[in-house]
Amino acid sequence: MSETLHSILVANRGEIVQRVFRTARSMGLRCIAVYSDADRDAPFVTDADIAVRLPGGYLDSDAILAAAQRMGANAIHPGYGFLSENASFARAVINTGICWVGPAPDVIETMGDKLAAKQAAERAGVPTLPSSDDPGHAATVGYPLLVKAAAGGGGKGMRVVHRAEDLAEAVASAQREAANAFGDDRVFLERYVAASRHVEIQILGDQHGNLVHLGERECSIQRRHQKIIEESPSPIVDHGLRGAMGDAALALASSMAYSSLGTVEFLVDDASREFFFLEVNTRLQVEHPVTEEVTGRDLVREQLRVAAGEPLDFGTDDVTWDGHAIEVRLYAEDPSNGFLPASGTLAAFAPSTEPVVRWESGVRQGSVVGVEYDPMLAKVIAHAPTRTEAAQRLALALERLHLAGVTTNRDFLVATLRSEAFLAGDTTTDFIERVPVVHPQPFEQVETAAVVAAMWLQGRNRQQDGIWGFAPSNFRVGGFPPQWVEFATPAAGENGLRIEYQPRRSGGFVLANGRVVTVHRWSDTDLDLDINGVRRVASVSAAGGHIHVSLDSTTVSLAVTPRFAPPGSDTPTGGLVAPMPGIVLELRCAEGDQVAAGQVLVVLEAMKMEHHIAAPIAGVVSSLLIAEGQQLENGALLLTIEPPPMGGGDG
Q1: Do 356 and 306 meet the contact criterion of CB atoms below 8 Å apart?
Q2: To the nearest whole number, what is the mean pLDDT of the chain?
Q3: How far is 606 from 337, CA to CA, in rounded Å?
């Protein structure tokens, strides 16, 4: 018997809330959000018909249920992460008489336990990798192996181990991370296949026993075991392999009477094309849009219809795949520094209207990227007739995004999408380690951006001049003295980058190197100018003493150097600083300790994951400035190391 849904509460945050809202509103549902204090100014909060504050955050199931009852919601959608795969929460929702948008609690419970899920797969005849829940059986599992959290996912609580002597540390670290992320510190060991592909099958079942699969997605390009590029169809899956994996996924789903959306994840050996069961995600996946784009089916709509008790109106034989879709996850993180998370305020976030791609974002200009949650800024999806065209379209859309204020993986994503290896479909799970694509911005590009910034600044100064602002920049009775501005940028080193220009009476400007610049149009957000016969329109943003210029496929950020530098303190020689905001989880040294270069001294927890900070040099810890449990800002001084004295002996 079907139920009429009229109001839905999405128990999540960010872009997935707005994604669910979009479909829910198209079906005539009132949309309710919940939010933490850190998200009070987030776009999804104001996008809701009504939003309720959660003092305890997104894991406070009692407060979420109370909000749903108070606001009259008759359905709860959990999104992904947080409580989306929490069987206790699902039961509580159902027990209050509210429609739970997801599979049955007992299915969530079984599939949420990776060990139980693997046993269920074996009973259903699905091939699995060698594994054990006993670290003492590591030799039987075989090296290299993967330490995996028994609960949860998202790359948390996972460690690759190549040598027996590293196992104990990996298990302990994975257990801490799993306990912190999922409240469950159980881990198990599984054979690690380096040259493999991560391929998953999208399944959908209703409450009447009907089951379908909607093909595969490949999600092999990952860092820290978290996906960053996904696509459908997979470049290596043919009709036969799709049929075999689809049949295996449906056999497992049928064995547990699966209802709602779900994803059965497999590891495919790149050489043999053998596939092995990994896990089942009993929720909507982050990468679901690529399946929507190639099948033309709204998966959130199907999910809501199934939750309401309606039967599926199509079968697997009715599913067709059109063209190719690729999704990238745009993160606030630093690919050149081990993909460490970044934080800050978005000085600019302005997608271009062309080429046409699908933007799913939970941020806007001015949004604060903090340390409380996952640092994903947006998902960007391109659909095209061919894989190459989809990759090129997506890369161009990313290049034309005016994005500034926070370090991101945008340039890394563009370089990957345009790389020969990616375009050839050579996308195994070791792609990032195997294919170098991170390159520094060319100095010529930075220098051009600095010229744009200098011209934009002089235009702004004219706009703000209350006396002579009406006159052109080069209006002057006498001569034209040269002007200059200095910028600090890593590309220019310690000396910075100085742009000198002199206005010409005939219009325009002459740079110190003789190049001629003509400004055709100035605005608060962009600049149309010509540099030695090359004309371009660059997007420009100014915030916090920085000028951010988007041109020639990237954004260059330049710090305006003040004429008179304020007094400040430099990091002491031998100082070790926090590479990101976070909490000191563990100290592995004390003042006076002799340490070796590369030795882990501090374990920092940021965004629910552990980060090991090692000694850059050998020496003695001369001062320790932090304590366990302390919250740190990015760049905070942790400790200092006194290098060993030069020479030695009695002379």
Answers
A1: no
A2: 90
A3: 15
Q: What angle do CA 441, 361, 21 make, to 5 degrees?
A: 170
pTM recorded for the entire structure = 0.83
Q: Please state which CATH class domain 443-560 belongs to.
A: alpha beta
CB 234 within 8 A of CB 427: no
Choice among 71-85, 103-117, 417-431, 485-499 with the minimum mean pLDDT: 485-499
* Topology annotation, domain 109-126+196-320: D-amino Acid Aminotransferase; Chain A, domain 1 (3.30.470)
Rounded to the nearest angstrom, the gap between the alpha carbon of residue 280 and the centroid of all alpha carbons in its chain is 21
- Residue span(s) of the chain under CATH 3.40.50.20 come to 7-101
Options 3.40.50.1000, 1.10.490.10, 3.30.1490.20, 3.30.310.50; CATH for 130-191 is 3.30.1490.20
Distance, CA of 293 to CA of 188 (rounded, Å): 36
Q: Which CATH number fits domain 323-439: 3.30.470.20, 3.40.190.10, 3.40.50.1010, 1.20.1530.20?
A: 3.30.470.20
Mean pLDDT along residues 382-400: 97
pLDDT of residue 569: 46
Please tell me the distance from the alpha carbon of residue 639 to that of residue 577, in angstroms, as a whole number: 7
| CB proximity list for 324: less than 8 A, separation 6 or greater | 231, 232, 233, 294, 383, 384, 385, 386, 387, 389, 390
Q: What's the pLDDT at 465?
A: 60
pLDDT in tens, 612-635: 888 878 889 988 889 988 888 767
Q: What is the CATH number of domain 575-642?
A: 2.40.50.100
Positive or negative, the CA dihedral 337, 341, 342, 346 is: positive
Which residues are CB-contacts of 511 (< 8 A; sequence separation ≥ 6)?
451, 499, 500, 501, 517
Q: List pLDDT tens digits, range 315-366.
A: 999 999 999 999 999 999 999 888 888 888 999 999 999 999 999 999 999 9
Element (H, E) at 53: strand 50-53
Tell me which residue has tokens 């998953």. 200
Lowest mean pLDDT among 124-128, 190-194, 381-385, 458-462: 190-194
